Amino acid sequence: AFAGIANLFHLQARRIYVPRGYCYTAGDEGACMWMLPGGDAGFSLPDYAAFVFPTLWHCGPRAVRRGIRTGAAMDSRHPNFPHAYLFSIGVRETARGKGLGRTLIQPVLDACDRQGLPAYLENSNPANTGFYSACGFAPLGDPIHPEPGSPPLVPMVRQPRRS
Fold it and tell me: Against a cut of 0.85, is the pTM above it?
């Protein structure tokens, strides 16, 4: 399963978030990927092929089906209002607990505040709820359950802060 997830994240970084979104790193210790309002995070037919064939080979047809269903479930709940979308943020285990996550996320949140724009994400890890809450995010509706037994994705939104 890890090979399929790794392939999907690399694919989305290379084909969607780097060329069409807003991505940045903190050396090799952390990174985040955003899609700004008006951006296109959609998959093209070649993107689907680049996902399906390696995932099928390494993980089997159930992983492909799970990936497609998860994407569809996320799309169906994605808000229609203009917002900055935090697709992913990650910090190497050795760099955690030092404020790097906040350093990574804060520049776009500050820009959202200046523009009066909400930020949105789907929290896939309950351990991150406190971090996102401390950054001003709050749950938005019920969790997303792409398939029975799958971990829930919790939609969260952060309203812009007035200075």
Answer: yes
